[in-house]
């Protein structure tokens, strides 16, 4: 049985990796490792189909090292021993270890010395957060890189390559992929290139040619992806229009409109986008006006991810209704953006000497930390002292809003403390 299209199209050079330019682009960390021939073991984590295996394959192809792939859950210690023996014979082996979060202690203990001596360059792949799911022993010997969902333009690029490639792709067939069909492939798979290529290959293999050409239309791609294109345009912007309308409806407290756009995203099966967008909305638009609502959204999103569709729609709907009817405040995002704008424009100064680190020998000679007043030693655990650099000592980033009881109380406390801090 021939290998799937997604497998055949895996890149053999870093330059051919689709997306992930923050890691493999010119001058970026993995590109630098390959160029300097200073590979270190790493963990790549992110959603399925976003390029973890492709990056490992491209690293191996670019360095000409042997490349082996194992699964931490299903392959045995003996399989690891075979790789280790090969590394001993040939010098270096790049080992892609899928589901590294499921590596047991026996296999871990076998691997560690081989990572130490550099014979095996481990590239662990996982969809789980490695800071939580991977053991400290492995984490301490690897660099951790996040692999992000691919953008639609990245997937379009990969589709075009697959249609043109005569050796590994579909280039030997006369295929006409309609623009709306391509846009659905690029947007409905939620950044999962493997799913997009699998859908494309299924469509190509299961569609009869007409006058020597396989015409892949929108209905055909919908059937092969099992995803409906509820609205589309020639530029494929509708996917983002729905997401934008979803957030703006919640921000504008229109419950019925927000539920409508949620329904469109649910029907499209786009749980990753819903989860991310709801979490952003909870902190960006509701924020300090109602912090418990944000916490409940996180719980609802977690429940939805565990349930999956169709049941996931229930906690998501509850969260959307609560966010729509909640008081709103964007003071948090406005405050941090104002502070970041100062940093980017160079409007900052030196940390006051009394706040500088005083835990090393010679710090006192530099005047660091000498006049620092420990607030807990004073009444009400507060004492007046300057914390901001001299250059911006009077700046105010946080502009409180009073749309909810919680932030109203924060605003009163903020005003009291600021007045005391700046009193003459």
Walk me through what this model shows.
The chain has 19 helices and seven strands. It has 424 residues and is α/β, with parallel strands linked by helices. The chain has four domains: 142 residues, Rossmann fold, CATH 3.40.50; 74 residues, Helicase, Ruva Protein, domain 3, CATH 1.10.8.60; 72 residues, Zinc Finger, Delta Prime, domain 3, CATH 1.20.272; 91 residues, DNA polymerase III clamp loader subunits, C-terminal domain (post-AAA+ oligomerization domain-like), CATH 1.10.3710.10. It has a five-stranded parallel beta sheet with strand order 2-3-4-1-5, with helices on both faces. The chain has a two-stranded parallel sheet with strand order 6-7. It is globular, with a radius of gyration of 27 Å. The N and C termini lie far apart (82 Å). About 1% of the residues have low confidence. Belongs to the AAA ATPase family. RarA/MGS1/WRNIP1 subfamily. It comes from Secundilactobacillus silagei JCM 19001. This is Replication-associated recombination protein A. InterPro entries: AAA+_ATPase, AAA_assoc_2, AAA_ATPase_RarA/MGS1/WRNIP1, ATPase_AAA_core, DNA_pol3_clamp-load_cplx_C, MgsA_C, P-loop_NTPase.
């Amino acid at each position: 049985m021939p290998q799937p299209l997604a497998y055949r199209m895996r890149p053999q050079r870093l330059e051919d990796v689709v997306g992930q330019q923050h890691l493999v682009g010119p001058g970026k960390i993995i590109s630098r490792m390959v160029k300097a021939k200073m590979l270190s073991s790493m963990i790549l984590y992110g959603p399925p189909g976003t390029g973890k295996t492709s990056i490992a394959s491209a690293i191996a192809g670019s360095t000409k090292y042997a490349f082996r792939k194992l699964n931490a859950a299903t392959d045995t210690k003996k399989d690891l021993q075979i790789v280790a023996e090969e590394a001993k014979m040939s010098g270096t082996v790049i080992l892609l270890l899928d589901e590294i979060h499921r590596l047991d202690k026996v296999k871990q203990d076998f691997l560690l010395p081989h990572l130490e001596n550099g014979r095996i360059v481990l590239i662990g792949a996982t969809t789980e957060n490695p800071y939580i799911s991977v053991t400290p022993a492995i984490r301490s010997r690897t660099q951790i890189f996040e692999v992000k969902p691919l953008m639609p333009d990245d997937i379009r690029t990969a589709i075009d390559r697959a249609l043109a490639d005569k050796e590994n792709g579909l280039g030997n067939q006369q295929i006409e992929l309609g623009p709306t069909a391509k846009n659905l492939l690029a947007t409905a798979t939620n950044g999962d290139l493997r799913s997009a290529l699998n859908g494309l290959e299924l469509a190509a293999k299961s569609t009869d040619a007409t006058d020597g050409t396989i015409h892949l239309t929108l209905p055909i791609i919908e059937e092969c992806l099992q995803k409906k294109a509820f609205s589309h345009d020639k530029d494929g912007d509708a996917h983002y229009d729905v997401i934008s309308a979803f957030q703006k409806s919640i921000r504008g407290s229109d419950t019925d409109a927000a539920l409508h756009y949620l329904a469109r995203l649910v029907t499209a099966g786009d749980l990753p986008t819903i989860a991310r967008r709801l979490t952003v909305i909870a902190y960006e638009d509701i924020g300090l006006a109602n912090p418990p609502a944000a916490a409940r959204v996180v719980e609802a999103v977690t429940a939805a991810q565990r349930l999956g569709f169709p049941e996931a729609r229930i906690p998501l709907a509850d969260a959307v209704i609560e966010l729509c009817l909640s008081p709103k405040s964007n003071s948090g995002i406005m405050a941090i953006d104002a502070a970041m704008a100062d940093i980017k424009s160079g409007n900052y100064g030196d940390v006051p000497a009394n706040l500088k680190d005083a835990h090393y020998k010679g710090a006192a000679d530099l005047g660091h930390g000498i006049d620092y007043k420990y607030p807990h030693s004073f009444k009400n655990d507060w004492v007046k002292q300057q914390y901001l650099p001299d250059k911006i000592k009077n700046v105010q980033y946080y502009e409180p809003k009073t749309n909810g009881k919680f932030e109203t109380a924060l605003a009163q406390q903020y005003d009291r403390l600021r007045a005391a801090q700046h009193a003459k």
